[in-house]
C-alpha cells in the first residue's frame, strides 16, 4: 500500500507549461512516480511572474487535475488507500536570468592537533562559504559541495571521520533574487498550497536526465525551454557551471508572429507544423509548397515553406550563437568528455542536434528520462523531466533530513525559518 503521507509533489512553473508530478520511495528504495499533469502557463515570462492571479489560477488548475487523476487511480488501483487525495504542499522550481551559479570556497580551522571531522564541522565549513555568498536581496537556493580539502589535500568527496587540523570545501552556490522567489511562493500560497522548498529548475531537470557517470566524466546539459535556456556543466561528479539565458522557443514564435503579422497562436501552430522534428518531411521538393496564413477573418495570404523555414532558422541560429558564446566564455569545452545532452521543448526543432554539434564540436544527444520507476503511462515524457527531477530532489532531501545528514542543498533562511529550526536541532 502506498503511504500517502510520504508522497511529495513537484511543481514546475515554466514559461509555457506548468506541471506537477507526484512520487514516493517504493519498497526497494527506488523513486516511484505515480502521476503527473500539465497545463498551459499564464502570467509568467522567462521565469518571472508578470500576473500573480493568473499564475495562481494555473497552479490551482494543475493541482486539481493531478488530484482528480490520482482519485481515479485510488478507485482502480488496490495499492492506493481509499481516501480522498489532496495536495497540501509542494516543492517548486524557480528559473530566470536572475538565478546565478558561482564557485566559492569555505574554510574551517579545526584544531592545532588533528581531530576527527564531524558532520557539524562539514556544516560549519559550508556555512562559512555561504556567509560570504549571501546578500540582502538574494537567497541561496543550493550550496553544492564539489570537493573537500583536508590539510591541503584536494578531491576528497567525504571527509567524515578523517583526522585533520583544517577543513576546506569548494562549492557551487546557486542564488536567486529574493523578490522573484517571494512572488513564486506567494502565487503558490494564493492557490491554497504551502511551499516546502524552492529549487532551481535546471538542477531538477539534471537529476532526471544526467547519469552519475556522465557527471563524473564531464557533460553539458542544455535545457532549451520556451523562455529560458539553462546551461549546466558537470565534471568530477558535481556541478561546476550554471547559466540561465533569457531566450527560448517563444522567441522563434514571436519572430514568426511579428514578421508575418499574425497572432502568437497561429505563429506557434506554423512553427510546430512545419519546422518541428515531428512536423514532417521538409526537403528540397517541398520548398516551394504554399502555406496559407490567416491575416484576419476575411484575409488570407500565402508564403512558401522555404520562406517560413528561413525566418525560423535565422532566429534559431541567433539563439544558438548566444549559447555558443556563453559556453566558450565559460571555458569548459575542453573538459566535456561525455558531450552535450539536450532537452526542453525547443530541442524538438528540426535540425537542432546537427547545428549544436557543428557549433560545439561535441557529440550531442537528446535527453532520456532515468532514475525512477512508474507503472503509470506517459511518465517518461521528457516534458515532465523538471517535475520528476524535483520529486527526486525532494525525496533525497527528506531522506537526508530523516537520517540526520547535513542538507547541503536548499536551506531557506528567511522564508523557511521553521524548517531550518527543526534541522538545527540535529546538531
Ligand atoms: N515538437 C516541438 N517542436 C518544436 N518546438 C517545440 C515542440 N514542442 C514544444 N516546442 C516549443 O518548446 C517551448 C516549450 O518548451 P518547454 O516546455 O521546455 O518550456 P517551459 O518549461 O514551459 O519554459 P521555461 O523552462 O523556459 O520557463 C515552446 O516554445 C514550444 O513552442
Ligand atoms: Mg522548463
Please tell me about this protein's structure.
It is a single chain. With 427 residues, the chain is α+β, with helices and mostly antiparallel strands. Helix content is 36%, strand content 29%. It has 2 domains: 169 residues, Nucleotidyltransferase, domain 5 (2-Layer Sandwich); 156 residues, Nucleotidyltransferase, domain 5 (2-Layer Sandwich). The C terminus is likely disordered. The strands form 6 sheets. The protein has a 5-stranded mixed beta sheet, sandwiched between helices. The site of adenosine-5'-triphosphate has 25 residues, from α6 and α7.
CATH A-level architecture of the largest domain = 2-Layer Sandwich
Low-confidence stretches: 408-427
Shape: globular
- Classified by CATH, the class of the largest domain is Alpha Beta
- What share of residues are in beta strands? 25-35%
Largest sheet composition: 5 strands, mixed
CATH superfamily of the largest domain: ATPase, nucleotide binding domain
In terms of topology, how is this protein built?
Blueprint: E1 8-13, E2 17-25, E3 31-40, E4 44-45, E5 48-49, H1 52-76, E6 89-94, E7 100-109, E8 115-116, H2 119-133, E9 138-150, E10 153-156, E11 163-164, E12 166-177, H3 178-190, E13 194-200, H4 201-209, H5 212-217, E14 219-224, E15 229-235, E16 238-245, H6 249-260, H7 264-275, E17 290-294, E18 300-304, H8 305-330, E19 340-343, H9 352-360, E20 364-366, H10 385-402, H11 417-424
Adenosine-5'-triphosphate (ATP) binds at residues 14-17, 47, 95, 225-228, 248-250, 253, 268, 272, 276-278, 344-346, 348-349, 383.
Amino acid at each position: 500500500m502506498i503511504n500517502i503521507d510520504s508522497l511529495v509533489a513537484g511543481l514546475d512553473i515554466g514559461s509555457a507549461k506548468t506541471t506537477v508530478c507526484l512520487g514516493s520511495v517504493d519498497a526497494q528504495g527506488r523513486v516511484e512516480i505515480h502521476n503527473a499533469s500539465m497545463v498551459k502557463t499564464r502570467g509568467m515570462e522567462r521565469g518571472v511572474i508578470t500576473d500573480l492571479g493568473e499564475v495562481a489560477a494555473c497552479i490551482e488548475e494543475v493541482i486539481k487535475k493531478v488530484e482528480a487523476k490520482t482519485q481515479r487511480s485510488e478507485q482502480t488501483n488496490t495499492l492506493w488507500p481509499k481516501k480522498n487525495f489532496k495536495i497540501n504542499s509542494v516543492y517548486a522550481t524557480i528559473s530566470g536570468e536572475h538565478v546565478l551559479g558561482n564557485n566559492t570556497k569555505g574554510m574551517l580551522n579545526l584544531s592545532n592537533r588533528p581531530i576527527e571531522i564531524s558532520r557539524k564541522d562539514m556544516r560549519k565549513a559550508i556555512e562559512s562559504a555561504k556567509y560570504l555568498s549571501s546578500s540582502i536581496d538574494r537567497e541561496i537556493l543550493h550550496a553544492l559541495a564539489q570537493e573537500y580539502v583536508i590539510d591541503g589535500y584536494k578531491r576528497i568527496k567525504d571527509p567524515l571521520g578523517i583526522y585533520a587540523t583544517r577543513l576546506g570545501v569548494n562549492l557551487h552556490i546557486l542564488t536567486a533574487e529574493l523578490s522573484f522567489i517571494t512572488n513564486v511562493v506567494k502565487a503558490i500560497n494564493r492557490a491554497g498550497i504551502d511551499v516546502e522548498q524552492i529549487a532551481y529548475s535546471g538542477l531538477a531537470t539534471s537529476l532526471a536526465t544526467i547519469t552519475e557517470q556522465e557527471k563524473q566524466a564531464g557533460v553539458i546539459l542544455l535545457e532549451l525551454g520556451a523562455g529560458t535556456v539553462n546551461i549546466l556543466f558537470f565534471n568530477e561528479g558535481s556541478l561546476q557551471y550554471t547559466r540561465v539565458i533569457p531566450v527560448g522557443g517563444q522567441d522563434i514564435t514571436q519572430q514568426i508572429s511579428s514578421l508575418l503579422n499574425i497572432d502568437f497562436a497561429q505563429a506557434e501552430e506554423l512553427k510546430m507544423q512545419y519546422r518541428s522534428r515531428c512536423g514532417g518531411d521538409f526537403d528540397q521538393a517541398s520548398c516551394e509548397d504554399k502555406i496559407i496564413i490567416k491575416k484576419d477573418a476575411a484575409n488570407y495570404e500565402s508564403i512558401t515553406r522555404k520562406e517560413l523555414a528561413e525566418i525560423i532558422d535565422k532566429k534559431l541560429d541567433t539563439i544558438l550563437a548566444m549559447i555558443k558564446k556563453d559556453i566558450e566564455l565559460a571555458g569548459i569545452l575542453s573538459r566535456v568528455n561525455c558531450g552535450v545532452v539536450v532537452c526542453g521543448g525547443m530541442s524538438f526543432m528540426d535540425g537542432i542536434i546537427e547545428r549544436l554539434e557543428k557549433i560545439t564540436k561535441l557529440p550531442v544527444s537528446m535527453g532520456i528520462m532515468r532514475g525512477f520507476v512508474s507503472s503509470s503511462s506517459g511518465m517518461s515524457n521528457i516534458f515532465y523531466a523538471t517535475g520528476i527531477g524535483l520529486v527526486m530532489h525532494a525525496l533525497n532531501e527528506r531522506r537526508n533530513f530523516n537520517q540526520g545528514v547535513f542538507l547541503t542543498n536548499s536551506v531557506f533562511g528567511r522564508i523557511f525559518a521553521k524548517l531550518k529550526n527543526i534541522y538545527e536541532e540535529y546538531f
